[in-house]
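Late entry, written up from scratch paper. The run itself happened at the end of the previous shift, but nothing got recorded in the book at the time, so transcribing now.
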Amino acid sequence: MNLLIRTITLFACLLLCVTPGLAGAQDAPQEGEAVELPRTPSPEGAMVYFLEPQDGATVSSPFTVSFGLRGMGVAPAGITFADSGHHHLLVNVEEAPPEGLPLPTTEQILHFGGGQTETELELPPGEHTLQLVLGDPLHIPHDPPVRSEVITIRNSRLQIRSHPPLRPIDFVKYGSIFSSIDQPKGRR
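Output as recorded:
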């Protein structure tokens, strides 16, 4: 009897280990085929847009980018509220990422998972494109996707934030940076 129970248990384990692979083999994606995840529905008429800058604007880096949203709410990543999501800013993205997958974090796809609705952006001089995409708690675009029109901006120059000029009082308080260099060796 003991031998029979062990044999049946061993057979059942082997069957359970082998069968899932065989049963799922037909449904498994083929090499190169994209796997899509379930998407959160978006309400009809929902839209995301830029409050600033406007399409065609000329800016100086760093500049403020403000996001607008209508028909939905903003919620941090990982938090599920009905009809809500968080912003992603696509900078100079030529080909939109797949809609059924989480948006990757790259230098060109910026995530605002804390629920932020604006940011300071620093870009090199020249022409740039911007687009907003709303993502669900897992960073997956909604169905249908809630995304802005692609806007084009021109950065005229890089603003250099300079240190205020030194005043004579600064030399009295802190001394000259050359004070120890100017002195003969024995008098430092």
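Residues 49 and 68 are 5 Å apart (CA to CA).
(Scratch paper discarded after transcription.)
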